[in-house]
Amino acid sequence: MSEKNRDGKRSARERLAQEREKQRAKDRRRRGLIVGGAVVGVLALAAVIGVIAANSGGEKNTASGPVTAPQGAVGKDSLAIPVGKDGAKSTLTVWEDFRCPACKAFEDGYRTTIHQLTASGKLKVEYHLATLIDKNLRGSGSLRAANAAACAQDAGKFTPYHDVLYENQPPETNDAYADNAKLIALAGKVSGLVTPGFRTCVNDGSHDSWVKKSNDAFQAGGFQGTPTVLLNGKNVYANQSNPLTPAKLKQMVESAGKQ
After folding, report:
1. Gap between the terminal Cα atoms of the chain
2. What residues in the chain have per-residue pLDDT under 50?
3. pLDDT tens by residue, 225-246
4. What's the predicted TM-score (pTM) here?
5. Which whole-number Å values give the CA distances from 38 to 27, 33, 172, in the listed order?
6. Burial, 176: exposed, middle or buried (Cβ in 10 Å; 0-12, 13-18, 19+)?
7. Residues contacting 185, CB < 8 A, separation 6+
8. Preceding omega of 227 cis (within 30 degrees of 0)
9. Exposure of 75 by Cβ count < 10 A (0-12 exposed, 13-18 middle, 19+ buried)?
10. How far apart are CA 230 and CA 221, in angstroms?
């Protein structure tokens, strides 16, 4: 074989080898793109799942079912529980959460004065129940306690049971009120409250959807926290430069009654 023919065959083999290497390189790039696309797709799906999980990890008050207001509830959408006489010249609007330590502090400080003013016919109180602590610290004690308080309203025993819940409030991080059995046991401190009807109302969560709607109204109202206390529509508890006291509350209510 001539030298020229050998060189021609060698060049052909080299060109063929180069073409094969180019094709293998293309195949590797194509596989890389397919794998890379699959990885991006998995990461995107994981991101979506993460967003869904994050959004579902908020407040656990996912009560469903018909909104059943407790007996005698008043106001827009029947979201307020009234205490006192309708003819009172002043109305105290209180937004509270039964797990909230600041709410307990308000109740402990003002309970006697409020009872005196409502008993004398000078003041009507409208209680709105919220569930902020359930969202902030997780749990369901705010919801469960609020439902039980609404059940007590059905039985005509809201005020004494409301007071018992605050007098026996567990530490904020202890979700003890998530236990219906504890709420029913505390109801035993209120004469005549624990009946089959009350037990069923508490255990069935009869007013859960109503409580959730009340909390939604609190959120929509743009209030800063609990307790929020309004006297005749004016926020009287948030002014730290001129703090409210039981004596001031009594004086304001009595002054309004003279007008």
Report:
1. 128
2. 3-5, 7, 33-61
3. 999 999 999 999 988 888 999 9
4. 0.75
5. 17, 8, 47
6. middle
7. none
8. yes
9. middle
10. 13
